[in-house]
Amino acid sequence: MIWDFGEIIAGLALLVVAGDLLVKGAVAMSLRLGIPALIVGLTVVAFGTSAPELMVSVAAVLDNAPSIALGNVVGSNIANILLVLGLPAIISAIRTDLHDTRESFVLMMGATILFILVCFMGPIGWAQGLLLLFALSIVLFRQIREARAHRANRGNGSAAETEANEEIESVDPKMPLWRIGLYVLAGLVGLPLGANWLVSGASEIASAMGISDAVIGLTLVALGTSLPELATSITAAMKGRSDLALGNVVGSNIFNLLCIIGVAGLFGDIPVPRQMLQIDLWVMAAASIALAPFIFGNRVITRGVGIAFSVAYLAYMVALFIGGSA
């Protein structure tokens, strides 16, 4: 089992590094090709930052462990709200009036409802996957259209484009082509390799502990793939910018529900365990609804709320392991 945990840790590390390299290379290439930075930020960066979760889910389906793929998405969305928002709020209260995320939240709830309906339709296959991807295309279209309108209202020209470029952090638009190719190649090779290590180790641990792949996906894999977002949110909170975490969490959850399972469903059927239909999907929905008073009421996510979110997540993890072992 020590080897399996080592495989998981190595897989997670490789996923983080490879995902970062792929994002930097893809963004630099897009900017070199003249694609507006605004479009790059809403598409290439969004896809790239979700690449680790996407590769883990596809690898799980191909390795005949589809429950890990489903658990990864549901567990990641629960962790994003209760943990990725909870821990930073303990460090620095999260103000919800600095960014208007009401429409994004409505889209997230719509994606959540659609996802739950798809799960109750039976095994998620290519038809359900295409439905989720179609919904994703609508979301992306709306985001790009509104972002363009917002940019136009703030002024056109080089100044606006320069600001858009600055929003894409740590990327040099003049990066040499050889380095761009190296980054993209390293990302494309490292992501599937890291995903295979993570899924393999997780499956072995599930078998050794006598618990289901779904529980491992909901806990170990979901928490592991959410670590980059958690680290980013905590760093932002320490700098007094914990408000940035809210928009990132809402956007990430939409992408997880529509893109990751949508793509994974194209590679094979994903059965939905009964426990997930009875408990876990509703925990995810409840965690999402818990954000509504803060987003629509412009209430601050205080330290007390952050503690409550974090304790709720810990209690959910304990209940999963106890139930899974039983």
UniProtKB/TrEMBL annotation:
Residues 8-144, 182-321 form the Sodium/calcium exchanger membrane region domain. Signal peptide: none annotated. InterPro entries: K/Na/Ca-exchanger (IPR004481), NaCa_Exmemb (IPR004837), NCX_ion-bd_dom_sf (IPR044880). It is found in: Membrane. The chain crosses the membrane at residues 6-23, 35-62, 68-93, 105-123, 180-199, 205-223, 244-267, 279-297, 304-323. Pfam families: Na_Ca_ex. It is a multi-pass membrane protein. Its main location: membrane. Keywords: Membrane, Transmembrane, Transmembrane helix. This is Sodium:proton exchanger. The lineage of its organism: Bacteria, Pseudomonadati, Pseudomonadota, Alphaproteobacteria, Rhodobacterales.
